[in-house]
Amino acid sequence: MSWRPQYRSSKFRNVYGKVASREHCFDGIPITKNVHDNHFCAVNARFLAIVTESAGGGSFLVIPLEQTGRIEPNYPKVCGHQGNVLDIKWNPFIENIIASCSEDTSVRIWEIPEGGLKRNMTEAVLELYGHSRRVGLVEWHPTTNNILFSAGYDYKVLIWNLDIGEPVKMIDCHTDVILCMSFNTDGSLLATSCKDKKLRVVEPRSGRVLQEASCKNHRVNRVVFLGSTKRLLTTGVSRWNTRQIALWDQQEDLSMPLIEEEIDGLSGLLFPFYDADTHMLYLAGKGDGNIRYYEIGSEKPYLSYLMEFRSPAPQKGLGVMPKHGLDVSACEVFRFYKLVTLKGLIEPISMIVPRRSETYQEDIYPMTPGTEPALTPDEWLSGVNRDPILMSLKEGYKRTSKVVFKAPVREKKSVVVNGIDLLENVPPRTENELLRMFFRQQDEIRRLKEEMSQKDIQIRQLQLELKNLRNSPKNN
Q1: Beta strands per DSSP E along 184-302
Q2: Which candidate, 385, 371, 389, 37, places its Cα nearest to that of 204?
Q3: Which of 145, 152, 108, 139 is nearest to 126 (CA)?
Q4: Rounded to an integer, what distance in angstroms lies between the CA atom of residue 157 and that of residue 131?
Q5: For residue 458, what are the domain limits?
Q6: What pLDDT, in 10s, does the model give residues 22-50?
Q7: CATH code (residue 165)
Q8: Per-residue model confidence as pLDDT tens digits over 279-330
Q9: Fewer CB within 10 Å: C terminus or N terminus of the chain?
Q10: DSSP code of 441?
Q11: Which residues, other chains included, contact 394 with Cβ-Cβ below 8 Å and sequence gap of 6+?
Q12: What is the reported pLDDT for 420?
């Protein structure tokens, strides 16, 4: 079991979590109460973005990282969506570009001004329409600039080329709602988990399913590629409704996992986070207050439990700081931004390797993916694969990306991919949608009946007045 300590030689055996002091947290934020299984938070080296509770549409805050403390209630928001915002992701190569998706079926690209927002932002630099239902996930390609993936409740994954502002590919192999997407190191493979209980490894440019696992004993919720190890890790639920993790070998048949390990009997969704530089896996449960961490090895038992960070405050979601935004002088190897809904609080949690020396620790900071894209959209779409361009953290992160986002000018029209008009080809409605429509129609029938009864009363009153008028002495 994962709670049993396993004493072994590891430089990360004593990693501990350190919560930032209250003045370095972000307070007074109306975090969304949406029950969608996402983090509702995105962070990079300059900004923190949080989806907020709002009426009449969807909105999210964008706060400069240095602006800690209490956030004013009237702080400017990004509020252009007509429905609840379900996911937000920062562009890995341009630090002021963020993508959002919503229940209004759109994906939007926003350009945040230098220094943050001064007033509410309602106009996106790019609005992308291609899904016929709400859009639950967005992911940027890890090595290619301006390639964005979106997954909707129409069971489709669309690949957008933001240079032209249109979808260029469609992955149409899923039979239910897509729960999670994860790329391998060079972005040549996409792993997805789906509500149909299947784990798939897809070649994104062709949409071809390379491997598929129908998980009977392990109902998959989340999946993550373990860097360049050609392995995948999934979190899910066993047939006895206990939370568990499973490790899969991508090079072999996905019919059976390498290992399965039960975590506990709680009901919250387990979010996995993998650090390819340290080979550490972090597990954080939705509604939990703790974060477990493990070390992934190449030989059995593959998964070694290290320690657990504990906190009494439950987390709704977690944002993760990119490597180049960490404090290397404090031996920080990972940083979470924890959403505490009950307090309206965002807590930074630093995972630190205790070292006596204050010099740069090269063994815990290898070369890591930087902020320069390795490919252009046309190169990637033509079939080229390239590993990410690496950078050193030794001198601290000072370099600014030279990539600039330029939104294309285009007219709204029908969206045709693979010979199918995406806006016309609507999949069959799900059971939940049919129930919502049924109750909506019941409410409408009830309202019409009430209006009819009011009209009947008015007609009877008029008939009575007319009868009294005819029987009055003046008319006789």
Answers
A1: 190-194, 198-203, 208-214, 218-225, 231-238, 243-249, 259-264, 270-275, 280-285, 291-296
A2: 385
A3: 108
A4: 9
A5: 428-466
A6: 999 999 999 998 888 899 999 999 999 99
A7: 2.130.10.10
A8: 999 999 999 999 999 999 888 888 889 889 999 999 999 999 999 999 988 8
A9: C
A10: H
A11: 328, 360, 362, 365
A12: 63
Q: Cβ(227)–Cβ(217) under 8 Å?
A: no
pLDDT tens profile 123-175: 999 999 999 999 999 999 999 999 999 999 999 999 999 999 999 999 999 99
352 plus 437 within the same structural domain: no
Tokens coding 2:
């994962």
Q: Please, which residues have CB within 8 angstroms of residue 432's CB and are 6 or more apart in sequence?
A: none
Strand blocks (E) in 341-391? 345-352, 368-369, 390-391
DSSP 3-state of 1:
coil
Whole-model pTM: value is 0.82
In degrees and rounded to multiples of 5, residue 454 shows phi and psi of -65, -40
Looking at the structure, tell me whether residues 383 and 441 fall in a common domain. Answer: no
SS3 256: coil
